[in-house]
């Protein structure tokens, strides 16, 4: 389903710099969502991946490494997913 922008949302998108997220607050749920132009999505993923790699390299430099344990990694992923719900 594709939603249509309201006039207020359109004005907010047009007033933001290209590549910047536009926050949208749902007063009922108190959650914040973001509008982003379709052409800016790949850069967001690239930026996110670069930040994650940099954080991982910094953790390695600090000695924060653990032995590879697939079962433990799966459990950590499941726990993170459960917290995100």
Q: Summarize this, please?
A:
By secondary structure, the chain is mostly helical. It has three helices and two strands; from the N terminus they run αββαα. It is elongated, with a radius of gyration of 18 Å.
Class inferred from helices and paired strands: mainly alpha
In total, the number of strands is 2
Poorly predicted sequence stretches spanning 5 or more consecutive residues: none
Q: How much strand content do the residues show?
A: 5-15%
What percent of residues adopt helix (DSSP H or I)? 40-55%
Which shape, going by the Cα principal axes? Answer: elongated
- Helix and strand run: HEEHH
Question: Compute the gyration radius: what is it?
Answer: 18 Å
The major beta sheet can be summarized as:
2 strands, antiparallel
Q: Would you tell me the overall average pLDDT? A: 88
Total separate domains: 2
Number of helices: 3
Order the strands across the largest sheet as they lie in space.
1-2
